[in-house]
Design a protein that fits this description.
Shape: globular
Distance between the termini: 8 Å
Strand content: 5-15%
Order of helices and strands: EHHHHHEHEHEHEHEH
Number of strands: 6
Structural class: alpha/beta
Radius of gyration: 17 Å
Helix content: 40-55%
CATH superfamily of the largest domain: HAD superfamily/HAD-like
CATH topology of the largest domain: Rossmann fold
CATH class of the largest domain: Alpha Beta
């Protein structure tokens, strides 16, 4: 049966790019340098959130005097030195799914908690920026995922009803946000495995974007 929908809204990190594991690798380098414990656990707790919410979570975990801004800057410099200029690996099936959606006249948006400057650069370097009709980023909305603001803004930009849009997410907070916004969540797990809550909130859970393409066919 042909799926009836008008748009697809993608998350970026962990969905389009295999970036979350690379970020954690960089955090581990910095954590070893400064003896920061349980850094992987801290990173997993922050999946899907914007920079403001991530900082709050780090300060709760490590204390109000934790120099998050300085240490995060050092981690970011390491990450970008390794993966800028198109070196950030993409997930399986990204281009195939984007091409499929374009061929069928579906609208495509990005809803990423990452800052717009970084999002635009990474999409452009990977050669996929022009597929997107709207790009909504974490610094363009006041509330982070799991609140639905970023998805609702994406649908508003695309001029589609949320119920006519699929949202492709890998994180718990992303699926929660899409569900609260009344989009149709598809979970493609990355670092965080599907849980009973995710099974309840998602329309379907699929292994990769090639499976998403088959599902939407």
């Amino acid at each position: 049966m042909v799926k009836d929908f008008k748009a697809v809204v993608f998350d970026m990190d962990g969905v389009i790019f295999d970036s979350e594991v690379k970020v954690i690798e960089c955090w581990k380098v910095i954590a070893e340098k400064y003896n920061i414990p349980d850094i992987e656990e801290a990173c997993l707790e922050c999946l899907g959130t914007n920079q403001v919410a991530t900082k709050e979570k780090f300060l709760i975990r490590y204390g109000a005097d934790f120099p998050y801004t300085e240490i995060k800057k050092e981690m970011s410099e390491l990450f970008h030195s390794r993966y800028d200029k198109g070196r950030l690996p993409m997930k399986v099936g990204v281009v195939e799914l984007l091409e499929f959606l374009k061929e069928r006249g579906k609208k495509i948006a990005l809803a990423s908690s990452t800052r717009r400057e970084v999002v635009t650069r990474e999409l452009r370097d990977a050669g996929v920026l022009d597929y997107f009709d709207a790009v909504i980023c974490g610094d363009m909305v006041s509330r982070s995922k799991p609140e639905p603001d970023i998805f609702l803004k994406a649908c508003e930009e695309l001029k589609v009803s949320p119920s006519d849009a699929y949202a492709i997410e890998d994180s718990y907070n992303g699926i929660r946000a899409a569900s609260r916004g009344e989009l149709r969540p598809i979970m493609v797990p990355d670092l965080a495995p599907a849980t009973e809550e995710m099974e309840k909130l998602s329309e379907v859970i699929l292994e990769n974007l090639l499976e998403v393409k088959e599902y939407l066919y």
